[in-house]
Structure formats: C-alpha cells, structure tokens
Amino acid sequence: MEKADLATDVMARLQEVFRRAFFDDGLEVAETDTAADVDGWDSLSHVRLLLSIERQFGIRIAPGEADRLADVGELARLIASKLQAA
Amino acid sequence: MSGETPDSRQLCLMVGTCITFGLQYLLSMSEEFRQRYRLQAYRTHRHQQFMSDFAIGDEELNAASVFIYHTPGWADWGNEQGYHELLARVPAHVQRISIPYPIFPPLWPFHVYDPRNDAPDRALFPHGAPAHYPYGDGVVLRMMRQGLPKEEIIRRYLDMDVSDEIGLDALLEKSIEIQAVKEENTDVKVLDFVASEFRRQPAFLTMNHVGNPTLIHMADQILGRLGCAPLGPFAHRGLFHLVSPQMPIHPSVIRHFGLTYVTPESRYAFDTFRNLTLEEYLSFYIDFA
Hints:
The complex is a heterodimer. Chain A has three helices and no strands. Chain A has helices at about 5-20, 45-55, 70-85. The longest helix of chain A has 19 residues, at about 5-20. Chain B is of the alpha/beta class. Chain B has two domains: about 10-100 and about 210-235, Rossmann fold (3-Layer(aba) Sandwich); about 105-165 and about 245-285, no CATH class. Helices cover about 40% and strands about 15% of the residues of chain B. In chain B, the strands form four sheets. Chain B has a four-stranded parallel sheet. A two-stranded antiparallel ribbon of chain B has the order 5-6. In chain B, strands 7-8 form a two-stranded antiparallel ribbon. The model of chain B has no long low-confidence stretch (mean pLDDT about 90). Classes of the chains: A mainly alpha, B alpha/beta. The interface of A and B includes residues 23, 40, 51 and 55 of A.
C-alpha cells in the first residue's frame, strides 16, 4: 500500500478504535485532536485505548511510546510506521 | 521566653499525588520515623498545574534530609517541565526515595473521564458540595446517550458480562507491562505485590488509588530505606481506607479474576457519607447531571 493510502487507512480504522475504546459510536476524532479534545480520554482510559490499537492493528506499542505524541495524527503516523516496518 | 521547644528532627519532604495522604499517615504511625523526622507533604491531584501546588523554595529543600517523590514522566502532572526543574533543585546531600504512581485498570475496565464533572451548574451532593464522580463509566454513558431509562441501564449493566466488551486478561497484562516500566528506576516498587495480592486484598480502591495493603507495602519500603522497622499489625488490621473513594467492582469482574475480598453484594466507601453497593452507586451516578 502507498504511504498516503496507508495513512488514510490507518486514520479511518483509528476512528473505529476510538469509538470502541471510549464507548461512543458517534465519536469523531481529527488528526489535530489531543486528549483534551476527546471526551473521556485521560491518562487512565489511555491504557484501554492502547490495548484496542494493538488488537486492531496487530502491532505492539511499548509503554511510554504513545505518551509523548502530540495529537491523534502523530498516533496515526506511529501506527503507520509500525505497519510499514512489519 | 517562649514555651515552645525547637523541633530538632530532620525534615522529610514528600511530593506526590493524593496517595501521599495515606503514605503520610502510615509513615507517621512509625514511632522511629516520628522521632527522627518531621514530615512535610506537598501533593497535587490530576488536571491541576503542578508548580502552583508545589512551589517549594530552595531554603526548604536545603533544610531537608529526605525527599520522597514520584519519578517524573508518569505522574500526570500539569507541568512536567516544572517538575523536572524542582527535582533538579533538590540538593545532593538530600536522600532521595522515589515512589511509583501505579494505576490498575483491570478491575474498572470501563473508565472514561466524565465531562459532566465540568458542568458549572451540575447537581449538588446531599451535603452541599458540587457533585463529582471522578471515575466515569463509558458503558453507562453509552446507554444514557441511547436514551434508555435509568432502571433499564442498571439492569443491563448488572446483568452484562464485562468480558463481552473488553478482554480483561489482556487489560491486566497491558497494565502489568506498563507498571513494570514505570518502576524500572523507582526505589519503591509495587508490581510484584499487586500482581500476587490483587485477588485477595484491596490492592487498589480505584484504578489510580492504591488501597491500604499496597500503601503499607510502599510505606514499609520507605521505612526500610530510612533504617526504620516496618509497620506493626495495627496498620494492617486497624485502619479504615486511607484513600477515598472506593469504587464498586462489577460482579463479572469479581468472577473473572476470582476476587476473594469482595462479593457482588459488597458495599464500597464512596465518600465519607456513603457506603454503596454497585447498584446504589449506579443510581447516584446516572442521576448526576
């Protein structure tokens, strides 16, 4: 898959992961969203989000690896880079 | 001439989250500790700006003998940079004892931050304070968004199997993995204790509040580093929960992990006034708006 297509695909699948992780079928996340922009997302629910991402994408995110990311877009890029490396 | 005797004990500073309420009490239960140290605690809570809570001056830092603190990077401060700057100012002569900031989601797997807590016109608790439910429940909120009546939400919630929504063993495994990294460089460690005890003791009261057994485990390690004996039996048997609130645990979570210290009918000390079953808690929580 082309890099741009992969990024689009990851972002689309990430939408579903967020909806499932935060139990909200109507949740819409944008690449520029941070934890403060997403209802329900705090450091405690972050563990469940990481687990959901790992299961959805079949990748592993090390503790601390996703904590330094600025926004959802960076999270999507991290996932895409792991998928490409796999 | 003043009747006051100068306090000649060494100064022990402690900075941390609300779990330091419990640690402060436990350390002060040690007569050896009390005789040698006067304890000054600075604490904050999540979502607050760190430095506004912990403006500790150089004079106080220089006067200290011991500095107990969370390792940076994990404590969810509002101002991580400010925390690093504070730690850099701790003089070399001060004995540092680092403690972890543990969290344990598997017993409360549906936690989300509930934005209703931020509503300025939210309901009041019966004692007059603005209602505050720091541990939201995503599944309850989802059913509320669907417009289900309260009684139906409670019935469905109590009857559900949590494992249908989330892999509890995977969540436990991920939580342990994260905690292991958190405590790689701390002096005080809790992971082995929690992993071996959480099924038979309240190792945690909420997903980020350790219970008395874990607090005692932490306090004993601090006391050991200071050359003091561990706490006696009274600490293990004679204390109410040192940290509040205590969050109810879903019956299917109790079953899944085989928890032996609670049952589906157990009551939980939610605040100073209310000792609630899960069903009673849900009723209050759903009405909170």
